[in-house]
């Protein structure tokens, strides 16, 4: 295993060049005169040939915060096709409510009817450090936010703190991902968000001092070295209200127009894994069994995949059998997979994809499905 | 910056840190130099006074991370090899050189948390604040990053 000292010694040798030092020293004498960075000069030279994409982006490089959020999560640079899909599909919401100096704005959203992302921007009074307040203990306390929708359920809901692109401590972006618990697409989705107080995790300083004296350090919320009997984690990291109020949003979001791509043109016989719920309940151990079925449909959108199977056995729920292989050889990371009505599977992607760039879907039994297969 | 004459002092103290953070964030020597310049330009234009040395260091690292993310989002990147900077990048031993290139071959999502933890000494919670990631995500990236680094070093 890498030794910390080796790592430290290695990077001790990595230093700014004398040229860079000279440039920094020159900044002082330039008195902050506006400088065109080297990259910027290249942009100017290439301006005549840059794509429409570059011309439409904002100062942060993207036309919307949600697009920037997706880009920041992508392991690879998003290609222009995907950026076009997302720019077309992302809807501006721009609904803001302010209570006692705290503004929550529903900024943007995108959905395909099964998976949805909503970006909220929070602005607190200038002297408030939101990052300190909500992350002091362990994670953001989001239990006070209720989400309800006719089709998009709370199952698979995930909140993420996004980089809002500034260094301000009193502003924060939150992204909520929702996934449908129903199989059918709806044309329009109404989702309600209720921020019932803004809460954060706070360290109980008095109790922390006691524990530090006892154990030599302040335990984490989940500390692998200590048991529940050793300390009370909830007392140590208390959830307290940052701001009181009810910020309520009822948001209507139309589905993005990117069409779902169908990979199954006629039923495909295959063997897939099923979760054996009976064994799981009886033994507490997950049990997967091979079952023969027919795949009736596989639709892929930029945000997720929906598959429909023949029903083969009561009480069985399909486990994701797909590996999505892109044309560049990479595979798509699956965020959540929800079984619907025993015969359908709703999968949300960790980050959006351009379905036209899929090479094939590989099933766990070795079957490959190709977009152009007839 | 409230006291412009302190720029050279801050550069003396933190330029290497800023450069290393940028290098680990973007994986390109030339891009890291550009980012370092932009960060110190922002420092020069900063009007609010800093409360402490720790405040300055955290501010510089945070802005470096932001600038790096902005660059990664843009389509304009330097196309270069580390061999182009062999004269500047010299190591005490072949093992250090191997480790450096193995680290640089890691995905940037692993590289930066590893650097902030192992070199700068930040805790996972502090890294979470700097990168605006949940602490658990930082922990898993450190764990995966170490595993991947181990794999790469065993291949050498």
* Oligomeric description of these chains: heterodimer
Average pLDDT metric of chain B: 81
Low-confidence stretches of chain A: 31-60, 135-143
Strand content of chain B: under 5%
Query: What structural class do you assign from the helix and strand content of chain A?
Result: alpha+beta
What spatial form of chain A do the alpha-carbon principal axes imply?
A: globular
Note the gap between the termini of chain B.
46 Å
Question: What string gives the helices and strands of chain A in order?
Answer: HHHHHHEEEHEEEEHHEEEHEEEEEEEE
Discrete helix count of chain B: 7
Count of β-strands of chain A: 18
Strand content of chain A: 35-45%
The count of β-strands of chain B is: 0
Helix content of chain A: 10-25%
Could you give a short account of the major beta sheet of chain B?
none
What ranges of chain B have pLDDT less than 50 throughout 5 or more consecutive residues? Answer: none
The radius of gyration of chain B is: 16 Å
Largest interface in this structure: A-B, 54 and 64 residues
The structure class of chain B reads mainly alpha
Mean pLDDT of chain A: 73
Major beta sheet summary of chain A: 7 strands, antiparallel
Structural summary, described in words:
The complex is a heterodimer of chains A (374) and B (156). Chain A is α+β, with helices and mostly antiparallel strands and 374 residues long. Chain A has helices at 4-12, 18-30, 38-46, 52-56, 65-73, 80-89, 130-135, 205-215, 233-236, 277-283; strands at 91-99, 102-111, 115-123, 145-149, 152-162, 171-180, 188-203, 237-254, 261-262, 268-276, 288-300, 304-309, 316-318, 322-326, 334-340, 344-349, 358-363, 368-370. Chain A starts with a helix and ends with a strand. Chain B is an all-alpha fold and 156 residues long. Helix content of chain B is 70%, strand content 0%. In chain B, helix 1 (7-26) crosses helix 5 (108-118). The longest helix of chain B is centred in the middle third of the chain and has 21 residues, at 53-73. Chain B is globular, with a radius of gyration of 16 Å. The chains are: A alpha+beta (374), B mainly alpha (156). Chains A and B meet through helix 1, helix 2, helix 3, helix 5 and helix 7 of A and helix 1, helix 2, helix 3, helix 4 and helix 5 of B.
């Amino acid at each position: 295993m890498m030794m910390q000292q080796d790592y430290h010694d290695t990077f001790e040798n990595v230093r700014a060049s004398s040229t860079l030092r000279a440039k920094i020293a020159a900044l002082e004498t330039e008195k902050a005169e506006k400088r065109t960075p080297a990259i910027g000069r290249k942009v100017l030279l290439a301006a005549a040939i840059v794509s429409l994409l570059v011309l439409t982006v904002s100062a942060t490089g993207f036309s919307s915060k949600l697009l920037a959020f997706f880009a920041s999560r992508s392991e690879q640079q998003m290609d222009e096709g995907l950026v076009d899909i997302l720019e077309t599909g992302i809807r501006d919401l721009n609904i803001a409510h302010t209570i006692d100096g705290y503004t929550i704005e529903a900024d943007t959203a995108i959905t395909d009817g099964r998976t949805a992302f909503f970006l909220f921007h929070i602005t607190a009074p200038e002297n408030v450090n939101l990052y300190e307040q909500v992350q002091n203990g362990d994670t953001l306390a989001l239990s006070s936010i209720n989400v309800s929708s006719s089709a998009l359920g709370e199952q698979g809901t995930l909140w993420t703190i996004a980089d809002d692109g500034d260094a301000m401590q009193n502003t924060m972006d939150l992204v909520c991902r929702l996934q449908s618990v129903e199989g059918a697409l709806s044309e329009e989705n109404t989702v309600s968000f209720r921020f019932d107080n803004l809460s954060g995790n706070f360290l109980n300083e008095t109790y922390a001092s006691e524990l530090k004296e006892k154990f030599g350090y302040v335990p984490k919320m989940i500390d692998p070295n200590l048991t529940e009997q050793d300390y009370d984690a909830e007392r140590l990291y208390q959830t307290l209200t940052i701001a009181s109020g009810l910020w309520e949003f009822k948001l209507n979001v139309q589905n993005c127009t990117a069409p779902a791509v169908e990979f199954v043109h006629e039923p495909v016989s295959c063997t897939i894994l099923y979760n054996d719920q009976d064994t799981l309940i009886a033994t507490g151990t997950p049990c997967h069994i091979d079952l023969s079925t027919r795949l009736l449909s596989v639709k892929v959108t930029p945000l997720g995949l929906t598959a429909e199977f023949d029903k083969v056995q009561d009480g069985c729920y399909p486990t994701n059998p797909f590996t999505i292989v892109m044309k560049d050889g990479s595979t798509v990371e699956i965020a959540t997979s929800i079984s619907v009505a025993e015969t359908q599977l709703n999968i949300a992607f960790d980050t959006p994809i351009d379905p036209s760039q899929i090479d094939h879907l590989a099933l766990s039994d070795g079957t490959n499905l190709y977009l152009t297969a007839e | 910056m409230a006291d412009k004459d302190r720029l050279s002092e801050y550069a003396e103290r933190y330029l290497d840190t800023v450069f290393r953070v940028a290098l680990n964030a973007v994986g390109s020597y030339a891009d890291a130099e550009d980012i370092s310049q932009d960060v110190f330009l922002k420092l020069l234009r900063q009007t609010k006074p800093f409360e402490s040395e720790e405040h300055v260091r955290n501010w510089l690292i945070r802005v470096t991370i932001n600038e790096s993310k902005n660059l990664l989002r843009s389509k304009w990147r330097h196309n270069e090899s580390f061999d182009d900077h062999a004269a500047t990048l010299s190591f005490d031993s072949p093992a250090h050189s191997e480790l450096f290139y193995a680290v640089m071959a890691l995905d940037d999502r692993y590289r930066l948390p590893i650097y902030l933890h192992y070199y700068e000494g930040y805790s996972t919670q502090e890294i979470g604040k700097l990168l605006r990631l949940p602490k658990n995500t930082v922990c898993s990236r450190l764990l995966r990053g170490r595993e991947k680094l181990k794999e790469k070093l065993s291949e050498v």
